[in-house]
Amino acid sequence: MTALSLTQASAILQAALAASRQAGHKPMAVVVLDDAGHLKAAQREDGASMFRVDIATGKAWAAIGMGASSRTLAQRAKDNPNFFVALASTAQGRFLPQTGAVLILDADGAVLGAVGASGGSGDDDEAICITGVRAAGLRHA
Fold this sequence. Notes:
Elements: H1 6-23, E1 29-34, E2 39-44, H2 52-66, H3 70-79, H4 81-90, E3 101-105, E4 111-118, H5 122-135, E5 139-140
Helix pairs in contact: 1-5, 3-4
């Protein structure tokens, strides 16, 4: 397995933000984390609120921590709210199971990291993340 490179993380960011602008979304933040949940790259567009980076990070961090997209985690949280409240508490608030982040996979399906976005609806956030991952020549889950 290879590690997620800064070049790949930057390509994901650029393509995701370009997709957001093309779709006419409000100013966004996009965050890319490595497979251990550490920051690889982040950008917050001019005019995006101060919370955007933290929210995008929380979505991506949850995806890495649980090995699933934040959409999947949001559904699991509905089905088992007490467990997910405990997870958020254990993670000192960094765990955000809300739609808007996907895992980044290599060609063999190994997890390289996650990308999260904040600024639009969860569906919009997720869509720009997927666009970014695909533009970097990687897969998502």
